[in-house]
Fold these 4 entries.
Entry 1:
Amino acid sequence: MNSAKAEVDADQGEVDRVDAMESYKKIVAPFDGVVTARETDVGALINAGSGTGGGSGPELFRVADVHKMRIYLQVPQQMSAGIQAGMPAELRLPQFPDKIFRATVATTSSSINLNARTLLVELHAENSEDELQPGAYTQVTLELPSNPNIVHVPTSALIFRERGTEVAVVGPGDKVEIKPVRLGRNLGTEVEILSGLSLSDRVINSPPDSLGAGDKVHIAGQQSSGGNSGNAESSRNEDVAPDPQSKQH
């Protein structure tokens, strides 16, 4: 009786061994996703002890969970102070030129890259329609909070001379004043002025090279020459022309 039971147990052990070997033919991913890479074919010899693939054998498949996508963005250090978790972002992909995808800032690296001088930002975006693909590049738009005390002027208003970057403004008596300025972010057609201008200054747009301090100018569209505009709430861009009757050199 004992010998018969031992024989049954031995046979059951062999069955279990065969079942275990058969189970190696089936690979189960730890999460639901799509196969984005296949590194093997049917009939290929897989050696689990080959030492490749991080010491656990060669890579067979690559699976991606695409129901929610992570987007990584490098933000220049100059703009990194305004990045906060929960901030909304817009994504634009070249394969969908007329569509905007919504994302949210999830976290940041909290440190500046020593080589690129940028902050690594992680965004999360829902992908219920599987339109966002792993490995794709996207253009990201973030609405950063602006400082209401920083003056924005057109890039065409900047003057580059031997004394550095300057801006011409209309002072009392419609006379030109040349002010040295310190630039902030370049916003394309506009640039931030960190210091050198006040919100009440009347900035001269596209000043001619011959324009100098003390020149009397005439503001286009203004019938009479006004005085100082110190009560203005923001800096204004004035189109001016030299006054032919009283130009000082």
Entry 2:
Amino acid sequence: MKDQYLHPVMTREEFGAALQWLRRRHAAINGRPELSLREIAARQRGCVHNTIRNYLAGSTVPSPQALERLLTIFEATGEQREFLARARHDLVTKPALTAAAVSALTEWPGCIDAGALLKVGTHSQGGERHAGVR
């Protein structure tokens, strides 16, 4: 687990990957296995596990209330909450970008990475990359 999440969150898939990263971070901080989809759904108050799967896969963007509950479950910091709330807002209010379009945009010469830091209170032992996230 890395100290910081340095990937852009410009697509639904990248948003899901950021949520998945927080899920892994939560497990690492607490020294336990990742919460199952059913455990997360039960803590979401009436949510079904398939909905959680869709959030984590990036096929569905959670409502502001559902996102806030997920961030509470995953013990996200204030900075992480602000970052993901802004990313969620941008995803639902701006035209959708495809992963290919984001890749093309971020590979232009002189382009600065559009990602933001999600700081955590645990230290990494590896440099893993998350599927679907550059």
Entry 3:
Amino acid sequence: MAARRTNVNRKHGIAAMRTLLSWSTGKDSAWALHTLRRRPDVTVVGLVTTISEAFDRVAMHGVRRELLEAQADAAGLPLHVLPIPSPCPNEVYERIMGAFVARQAAEGVEAIAFGDLFLEDIRRYRETRLAGTGIAPLFPLWGLDTARLARDMIAGGLKAYVTCVDPRKLPARFAGRRFDLDLLAQLPAGVDPCAENGEFHTFACAGPMFARPIRVEVGETVTRDGFVFCDVIPAKAGTHARLHEHSSKCRGCPPARA
């Protein structure tokens, strides 16, 4: 039987569920963290991410492990990394995730949150897999209007880069672009502003969910397994210094807040 270690929100005097967040490194999971931290009934106790064993990168987003770890450090949260094969059969994924969920339930985790927005089949799958485990699924962004949500993220200070594009749904030239109002304005008709249908994936490098920005640069773009990946890389201090000598618009450096 799971050992319950429910936190009490001192400000509101109510029980707060010990919650893990499924972390993709992208804008939606980052904004989900920001949203959860504003809820008095939730205490986020860690992030969980799957990593491709073949590439040592976050599955689908193609983000380097060191940048994932930098995000967790900037968020001030423990990081649980689950290595998976590439490709990963669904039964293998479910075995790995099932064992992890069982361990976390035994440690007193009460919920796992996801950044899903509106895909009913994905939500049902998560709910089904967690049924009977003692861990509840949470969907803090569920049902929000994605056009408004995308603009709220940007207005709220979230900075992100497009790391993966499905060229069947979005032109490859969007890989490596900053997730900003210009990008939203240029999205083809039918593309979801938050890319909930898999049109693109992102890496979040700054925002209210982080204690400090993660300095990055846009690297090489490659096509692999039918997807276009842009390698976002840790920025070198010297590179940033030279850029700032000549321009206040360094693409890899989020502007300082007033």
Entry 4:
Amino acid sequence: MICQTVDELAPFIGTRPACRALGAAPATIYRRRNPPPPRPARPRPRPARALTDAERAAVLAELCSERCADSAPAQVYATLLDEGRYLASERTMYRVLAAEHGRVRERRAQLEHPVYQAPELLAERPNEVWSWDITKLKGPAKWTYYYLYVILDVFSRYAVGWTIQHRETGPIAKALINQAVEQQRIDRDQLIVHADRGISMTSKPVAFLLSELGITRSHSRPYTSTDNPYSEAQFKTLKYRPGSTASSTLAASAASSSTTTTTTTDTPGSAS
């Protein structure tokens, strides 16, 4: 952009005054107008202390051996020194691996995470798909919190059960889900319960309970909060819309009660 402006001003005030006005170096302008010819590529000379082909082959064979295939060059280097052997420096091992088909990578055998499918759940009637989650509520004193468990019916967005506790555990979640299932009279193979991958959601008490009741489990993909949108949206309304009815009721219960509160409801028409 500056070079183009200098070229436009040069016929009127000259190149050097235009460069001074724009703060550009005249040498840069002249070099871009008449670029120097490219220098011929010269092969890099081989250092006198470079490894021979046989030495490089020995280093590569040791790095790719069965015992060292999953070890970093630093580990291989230290292991060879413990055995009284020195094939090459640690940096040279990296260069040998890089020259041989780009083998500089994570050499440890690590678990490959499977591809998680996005959950696709359809609720065509009440008590067909539930979504539940846990969130923190600020307590009356600094650094004190309450844990709010809420189970929502996806079809009606109705809270079929909720409880406020002093901690987050799997047995508490199990008791809440079991009570909500009894109140709503859920039959086997009728319900799908969706949640994220939190500690309580994937705990054994909850998993065993759902398996015993014939309820299908569904979980969000790892680190994907948008896979549980109904619970996340309900918590946002609760926390950032303090004038809402649910926010006022739950906040008052958390602030005034010294004991835990568990609430479930029988019909969507009643208030919790």
